[in-house]
Amino acid sequence: MRIVTDAFIHKAQPGAAVRERSLSDEARSKLWLAFGLQGFLAAAYIDYFGTLLRLPKGDWYWKLYDTLRERYEEPDLAQRFQRLATLPEGTFGHEFWKYCQERGIPMPGHPHALPVHSAVHDFVHLLSGYGVSIWEEMLTTTFSLGFMFNPKARNYDPARHKIVIPVRMLARLIPIPRLQRALDRGSAVTVDLFGDWDPWKVMEMPLEDVRRMYNIQAE
Question: Which residues cross the membrane (predicted)?
Answer without folding.
Answer: 31-53
